[in-house]
Amino acid sequence: MSEVRLFARAEPRVPGATVPWVRTRLRTAPGTAFWLALLVALTACLAAAFPRAVDRYEDSGLRRAVEHARPDRTSVQVYAPPPSPLLTPPEREDVLRPALLARQYAEVRAQVPRALALDPDRSAYGVRTTLDIPVPDPWLPRPTGKPAEVTLVAQSGLGAHTAATRGRLPRAAADVTATAPELEAAVTVDTAKSLHIKVGSVLHLPAAGRTLPVRVTGVVTPRDPKGAYWSTRPVLRSPSLIREPAPSIDMHWLGALLIAPEAAPVLLATPGRPERFWHLAPSEEVLRAREIPALRSALASLEAGPALRKVRLGIDGPPTELTQITGQTEILTDLDEVLIGYDRFRAGVAPLVAVAAFGTGTVAVVVLLMAGGLTADRRRTELALLRARGASLGGLTARLLAETAVVAVPAGALGLAVALVTVPEGRLGYAVAAAVAVTAVTCAALPLRAAAAHRVVRLHTGREDISSVRPSRRRTVAELTLLVLAAGAVESLRRRGTSDASDDLVSLAPVLVGVIAALVLVRLYPLPLRGLARPAARLRGVLAHLSLARAGRTTASAVLPLLALLTALTTAAFGGSVLAGVKEARDQAALLAVGADARVETSTPLPSGLPDRLRRSPGVSDLSAVSVTYDAKPENGAQSLPLAGVDPADYAALASRTDIGAFAAARLREGAPGAPVPALASTATARTYGTRPFPVLLPDGSSVTVRITTVLDRTPAVAGPDFLVVNRAALNPAMSRPTTLLLTGKGLDGAALRKAAPRAASVHLPSEERRRYAGSPLQTGAEGVYATAVAAGTGYAVLALLLSLLRTTPERTALLARLRTMGLTRAAGRRLLILESLPQAVLAALGGVLTGWATVHLLSPGIDLTAIALPAAEPASTGARLRTDALSLAIPAAAVLLLAVGMGVGQAWWSARRGSVRELRAGDAR
User: Fold this and answer.
1) How many CB atoms lie within 10 A of CB 330?
2) Residues 562, 851 contacting (CB under 8 angstroms)
3) pLDDT tens-digit profile of 511-561?
4) Which of 740, 764, 788 finishes a domain?
5) Which of 299, 490, 803, 811 is most buried (most C-beta within 10 Å)?
6) Which of 461, 490, 525 is the last residue of a domain?
7) What value does the CA radius of gyration of the chain take, rounded to a whole number of Å?
8) What predicted TM-score, i.e. pTM, was given to this entire model?
9) Are 470 and 456 in the same domain?
10) How many CB atoms lie within 10 A of CB 168?
């Protein structure tokens, strides 16, 4: 009976006893609590920062796309037809007055759906002429004798959008009518310069039965020339030289005269057919990539939906026969096309980012589970004793949960706070959910592992060495299931690529390969230990045999670090290969665009002494002079293509060195006199003209008969799908003069080349060309994610090994102390600890390198990095593929080995400094 009471008193009572238990555990193991808190904080910070970082660079990419698109494409342009001729003259004038236009502007803005946020500072409204008005004044420039034309614009907010003014802004009376005798106007600086207009100039415009003088009262400087106010209709800012349609060769200037909004009724007297307009500029600062569907829906409603009906009702009134005759208000915008283009670009990047996210997330989960599993294994005896003394499984699990939660929850909150401060933009909900998930996994790992191990009360357990314990059937089934999933993911990725962002299994393919490799190595781990233990036993020294025996007696649960290590190393290798592939693709694209290490070209022949002068420039090792014409016409036809005249020897050496269309110089050497000139051609050109001789008409009127002898995919002198390359000696002296110089060498200085080249020449270097391939925040953001994945993979690999070594620290310290009493020297102790930790570290390092290499080669056919590496406009021939990166394979593996050795040395040194070791040792024969 007393025994029953004893077990009843030993039963853990969670509500009343949790706090003392937790306090005691934290006091007895502060180091464990600190490392667990650090692991949770770092993982929660990474998990919470990831969705916000993705939101940030996607939003930045959208803003960049809208910003780079012209305002005439991104603005929502509302146009109302001219006032009906059936109205009386005063009624027609009232329709154009600014007070009514301002009220209608407010009504139009009110009907815009909420998803489309507008920028009122860049929006405008007013009246403008739709037909250009010729100006007969002879002092205006006439390039071909045709008079200049102007468009009259009465736009709101002129004074607020000008930075400086010579003269003054135009004025008009509030009650001005179409019969006004004179009109005041302003012009921009560019318009005044091109049309020779000054303050006080008077332009005489044709009007209804009279001439309307327009006096220029001011020359204004736009405050934001590229903004929507001035660039929705670029002629407001800068005049245009208009070419007449062929066959005419006439040209004339077209400029804008800016009049006061109150003067809009005067436009009714001109032949310009005035119309009302309202330009609504979107607010780029509030654009969010996640709101693109709602934004596209809003634009569709404005262009042909309910919003358009409401706008028409507010401006035109109810539909009548009159509106059917004169026309209705229309809304036009190309912002939806900009959004579609950006969405297509993002759709190409998102699956690649998902691969990195799933890989790093899986590694983090494995390490968190490993930390819980190692803790449960370290406390196996303690927990078994509690269960033997009557502790219930539920009570024990609850205590362990509370013990872990008191450390993990504050650490997870700290990690979340750091992520929110570090990445201030992005959705809060996803970040909180990610941090909560990390904290929940951490809190559940130890209790669930302990509950699984101690669901049955056991007083004694048998040996659970890795060399003796055989995997259970459940584990075998789970591993086979993972193998099937991994095979399916790899096959799906190789077939479909990363085009389907919604398929999570495809995104898991790289990490699944690492998991399968880890499971295979875990099963193979005992075999080399058994094979090496027997020959080591016959050696004279005891260190090799003892270290192998210790490694073989590692508990079965201690192989969890192998899984974490290999998964982390595979993730780091894959991320490094992605970055290497991106870099190589950009380097190759830049080299293809330039054609050499440097390119100097002009549209006219270069000076004769320039090649020799550039040969002496620092870093230049070789030079190929090329004459390029882009107007060669095969078979004297209308279609033209580029033709390059080259020196066969120099050009063949250049093509071979750059690996751009290498060929034998003999292919371009001329044959017998009068025979067709041998030519190199692109695949498309050869498909069009074949191998028969055909004439090519040159721009100077001469011609050359060529015959295609070699077909190349590309060539250094010309970028594009069509080209012909011939021996420069076969061309006449005028056409054989070089227009392009292709330089090769190391460390070429662009500034020095520009200084030596003529002022009209353009100088291109691959390093400068490469910069334009990484301009989008989507690209830089995705690269940042993969760089973080590499760093996180390396860090988690090191952390997994560190946790596994810390798990065995007490046992190894006790063993070392006992062996020191038996005469083991300090040096031998260091070697013993190093040799004991090396089998697992070496297996993980070699397995990680091999698995990473195999993963890259296995998945490279299905991974297309073009969306990250190159702009969407780049040709498909410069596509980017995975490339094995030696550094990302070697550095994490080397870090694992160095840490294993360093931990052994450090533990041996620390043990030697402890007083207990000095007291227990029998002697020190060094």
Assistant:
1) 14
2) no
3) 888 788 877 877 777 667 666 666 666 666 666 666 666 665 655 455 567
4) 764
5) 299
6) 461
7) 39
8) 0.80
9) no
10) 13
